[in-house]
Write a structure and sequence with these properties.
The protein is 34% helix and 35% strand. With 142 residues, it is an alpha+beta fold.
Length: 142
């Protein structure tokens, strides 16, 4: 009888330890998932609140001193960092050098991107890619 009680106590203690271990692993997993979802939610929220448009007339692109000027309007709800480190500019699929007239665009503001490239006459495409992956394109003629 005493041996039977001892084995029941050992099984009970083992079961409690096993259950607490499973509970701890589940708690840690749920905690990590919560943190990850919070981070992803913030990134998606920022992506959805960010928007812009290239507002040039595609048939008349201003040109001054060998640089083409493209006007970018922030149509989203967040400030867009507007520097060479946060924007990539492609013309006809190739990365090009550019400068900007401001460091950030507040919602509703218009900024300029000056592209230094020797474009032949004809049809071209400019694509702007922001730091968060949002991109817009404009087909234009020179």
């Amino acid at each position: 009888m005493a041996g039977e009680s001892a084995s029941h106590i050992i099984l009970f203690i083992t079961t409690v330890l096993l259950a607490s271990s499973v509970s701890a692993v589940t708690f840690v997993t749920i905690q990590k998932m919560t943190i990850d979802l919070k981070f992803r939610g913030k990134a998606i929220s920022e992506y959805l609140a960010t928007d812009f448009e290239i507002i040039n007339d595609p048939s008349i692109i201003p040109q001054t001193d060998g640089k083409y000027i493209f006007y970018i309007k922030n149509t989203g709800n967040t400030i867009i960092p507007f520097t060479n480190e946060t924007i990539t500019v492609l013309i006809n699929g190739s990365v090009v050098q550019f400068t900007t007239n401001v460091y950030s665009l507040k919602p509703g503001d218009v900024g300029e991107i000056m592209v230094y490239d020797n474009l032949s006459s004809g049809d071209h495409r400019i694509t702007l890619i922001l730091h968060n992956g949002l991109s817009k394109s404009l087909d234009f003629k020179v």
